[in-house]
Amino acid sequence: MTGNHWFTFSSPHCEAMYQKFNKPVNAALHLILILSITACASQNKFFDTLDYNKDWEAIQSNLPAYPQPENLLEFDAGPATSLRYFIDAKSISVDEKRVIRYSIVIQSQQGANNVSYEGLRCETRERKRYATGNNDTRSWARATTSEWQPLEAVAQLRAQRELAKYYFCPRGLVVGSPKEAVRALKAGMHPMVTR
Known about the structure:
This protein is α+β, with helices and mostly antiparallel strands. The chain has two domains: 9-43; 56-187, Lipocalin (Beta Barrel). It contains four helices and eight strands. Strands 1, 2, 3, 4, 5, 6, 7 and 8 form an eight-stranded antiparallel β-sheet that branches. A hairpin with a 4-residue loop joins strand 5 (113-121) and strand 6. The protein is elongated, with a radius of gyration of 26 Å. It starts with 11 loop residues before the first helix and ends in an 8-residue tail after the last helix.
């Protein structure tokens, strides 16, 4: 055995070929490894552009107008509910970090409404509530709990799971624009998915 390899060559010609190509291949593999480690280390932690390090007044100024009945689009949240679910078409936004935000109105059979402003992260299947609505004053109040929650971990997020799966996050990808989200809501589902 010659050189610093663990096997024996059948001919001097093979060993010469190995020596010729081994150094560039090793250098390339080392470069790939270093670039991979650098890429992993440089990935930014996700920071929510709407509310990261901001007080309520700063957040409030970025919230949409309170939902108006003429802007509400109903969506199907599945068969196991007696509630009706609506998205305010005018409130939908998609930011540069691929967070889709919207106002949701949940209506009981008696006509009482719960209103909140929320966000979905399609790639991680998480939801966050930023604000809750006060129907008497038609204004927003800061949500008592405003953190990203996995959609599958909270049973009460059935409507948001359906919203993500069939309307806003087809095949796990966020819609490209508010118009695309509105088209999906009006059509009853996004064209990239089937029920």
